[in-house]
Write a structure and sequence with these properties.
Blueprint (H helix, E strand, L loop, with lengths): L10 H25 L5 E5 L2 E8 L13 H23 L4 H24 L2 E7 L18 H25 L1
Antiparallel strand pairs: 1-2, 2-3
Helix pairs in contact: 1-3, 2-3, 3-4
Length: 172
């Protein structure tokens, strides 16, 4: 689809989708904060639990024990990334998968920035356990995550897919 085509979704649609992710993320985190105490866990299946974990770091608790400065560091990174993503969305309106990818990352990033601003940590609550992960993660438990993290992951996977499709098209 050509750049600026009238059929291309507009920036407002992408920002609306990001807002839906932010609202869903914050709503689910509010439920967890209201119903669970820190450290609580409820078994749902033999491979899935709902837990309440506070993450002061980034992915896989990176820099979690850094003493507090990381809160503002990650807020700053999230803010800069959000501005850059909005600029990219405006610059590539006809690239739907690319814009969808960025929108997922934007919604997730802002969802986690809101947590850092409100609480000083990110609320994580989805926990999966797979025996195959035992050599890497204690007990086979993948690090807990949330809706924002899931959106960022989906966005990253779609961004990779978009690039693979772009490269394939340029070769063919």
């Amino acid at each position: 689809m050509a750049r600026g085509s009238s059929k291309a979704p507009g920036l407002a649609m992408w920002l609306g989708l990001a807002l839906i992710i932010i609202v869903a993320d914050q709503f689910t985190k509010t439920l967890i904060l209201g119903w669970f105490q820190l450290g609580d866990s409820r078994t749902v299946t033999d491979f899935f639990n709902i837990v309440r974990v506070h993450n002061t770091g980034a992915a896989f608790s990176f820099l979690a024990g850094a003493g507090g400065w990381q809160r503002w560091f990650f807020v700053g990174i999230g803010a800069v990334a959000s501005v850059f993503i909005v600029w990219m969305l405006k610059s590539h309106p006809g690239q739907r998968l690319f814009c969808f990818s960025l929108t997922m990352i934007l919604g997730g990033a802002i969802g986690n920035v809101v947590d850092r601003l409100l609480h000083g940590y990110v609320v994580d609550f989805l926990q999966f356990r797979f025996a195959v992960l035992e050599p890497v993660f204690q007990g086979g438990y993948f690090p807990s995550f949330n809706v924002a993290d899931a959106a960022i992951s989906v966005g990253a996977m779609c961004l990779i897919l978009d690039e693979l499709i772009r490269v394939r098209r340029s070769k063919g």
